[in-house]
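Our working data are protein records whose layout never changes between entries. Instead of coordinates, the fold is spelled out as a row of discrete tokens. Here is such a record, shown just as it appears in the course material:
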Amino acid sequence: MNNKIGLLILVFFLYSCGSNRSIVRVSVPASKRVVVQVNKKKTSPPKKQAAMPKETKTAQTSNPVVIEQRYEAAIEQNKSSDNSTVVSKSEILEATTKVKVTTEMVLAYIDQFDEIAKSNMKQYGIPASIILGQGILESGAGTGPLSVLANNHFGIKCHKEWTGPSVKYDDDAAQECFRKYEQSNQSYQDHALFLTSRPRYKGLFELEKGDYKQWALGLKAAGYATDPKYPEKLTGIIERYQLQKYDAEVLGIDYVPTNVTTPSSALVQAGNTNTYTVMPGDTLYSISKKFNLSVDELRAVNGLTDNTLSIGQTLQIN
């Protein structure tokens, strides 16, 4: 019986080996497999939107660096300014030197603005000598901080009606508002309009044309300047630089030169008191050496609180 069973198994085995039918494979060989990779899209947390920059207001004044470069350029040319803080609407600058001008600088200033001064005299009735004298005195012959930074040659403050650009500067009070102009000629034009449009200056236009001395007194009386020596300083500049000749040109009359003091003959006898008129380039130190005084003595005699001088200022020399 066992022999029969073994024979049947052998027959089945031989039959299977000789069959041409392919064997069904349950698994696919590794070399034939096709791998389909499904990439799941990674979900990243939503990006935060970048914050929009805040709207910035465009400054109404020039770049402070540019202004400072202009100011430093003036200083390098010995066209310096007062030791004060200058503030416009968007920048703060420190002026670090004092006004020092030479005669040549003053004459160049006169040459630059004499025509507009004569034109304003013809149109508005303000003596050309007063216009030029005020321009020299108020602007330091174009070298002061207000003229350098704001083209303001007459120290005109903003007042209520002014809607144009401005700068702030320490004057009678801290950080007062002063008008700013694009060009210097606009300052000269505004000066004429300023005087002709205000009732307090009306009496000046009733004076004899070309009477610069009465104009100087009248400007002070009307409140143009608070310096008690303003008329003296203004007339001193007019006479020293012979600015009356421009009045004569406009009026069509002959000009008679006046006696002019020079740096070497600026000492004037006034009774028993010696006085000295400050000239361009003068300092308390140079004046004290000229008259064999100390700076402290010179300051004490004249009641000065610092070393600041103005062209045309009269000092007592005892």
Notes: The domain at 263-317 is CATH 3.10.350.10 (Membrane-bound Lytic Murein Transglycosylase D; Chain A). Strands lie at 85-88, 92-94, 166-169, 176-179, 267-270, 273-277, 314-317. The chain has eleven helices and seven strands. The first strand starts at residue 85 and ends at 88.
